[in-house]
Amino acid sequence: MANSEEQKFQVRKLELSDKSKGFIELLRQLTTCDSVSDKDFEDQFMELQSRAEDHQVFVIEDDRSGKIVATGSVFIERKFIRNCGKVAHIEDVVVDSNARGLQLGKKILNSLTNYAHSVGCYKVILDCSVDNKTFYEKCGYKQKEIQMVKYFI
Fold this sequence. Notes:
By secondary structure, the chain is an alpha+beta fold. Helices cover 33% and strands 26% of the residues. A 5-stranded mixed β-sheet has the order 1-2-3-4-5.
């Protein structure tokens, strides 16, 4: 059974066709995500493709339904400190509410973390809600300091 579950839920990079597979609707389960036209989606996708080494979006598609059921992104910050090192930032991790409990969040997070390690990052940073702290701790992350934010309205 585990093998068939593995086949149904493979992590892969975002594809242009994923908009029609519920990608935007999935992001709406995480945060505010307005309507995105096909052209705007394609333009943003192409922009990210041009920066592929420094920005990746991973998804999990349910082979049975053809829907995107999990996603997350990682972008790489190039630094002058740590011998001109690199830091990865993980963002926008979400699993469809109907697919939770299948370890898909852990699977996406591991893929994003492994990508960061593979491109030579010395650490990975992510922000999360207090409600999600335990999940990230189970995945090997530790709380460090606090986050500050300023929104531009």
